[in-house]
Amino acid sequence: MAWSKQGTLGSETQQRGKQMKDMISQLHEWIKLVSQVGIGLIALGVIVEIVFGTGAIFGGSVIANITQIVNQIGGQNGFVGLIAILLILAIFQRSNK
């Protein structure tokens, strides 16, 4: 009797562990999907702003906001900001594989 209870308990624990792994995997996939949608919207905003001008899609300047973020990351030295953006891009590309 003790052996069967232990075996059942062990299989329940393994099943719960598998469920947790599945939930975490699904959450990871959702986060990846939301990130990809966000990056796609940013790219769309940049393209539309280049073609149609400032405020054509989101009501503000996407390019100015990106420039401001790069300046905040890199300070007055735009090269440091560019390197930071490239590192962030590399992280996103690595997570998409």
Write the layout of secondary structure elements.
Layout: H1 2-52, H2 62-74, H3 78-95
Please tell me how large the radius of gyration is: 23 Å
Sheet bearing the most strands, described? none
Task: Report mean pLDDT, rounded to a whole number.
Answer: 79
Whole-number count of domains: 1
Roughly how many Å apart are the termini?
A: 48 Å
Task: Give your account of this protein's structure.
There is one protein chain. This protein has helices at residues 2-52, 62-74, 78-95. It contains 3 helices and no strands. The model has no long low-confidence stretch (mean pLDDT 79). With 97 residues, the chain is an all-alpha fold. It has one domain (2-95).
Which features does this protein show?
0% strand; mainly alpha; 97 residues; 85% helix; elongated
Produce a short descriptive summary.
The protein has 97 residues and is mainly alpha-helical.
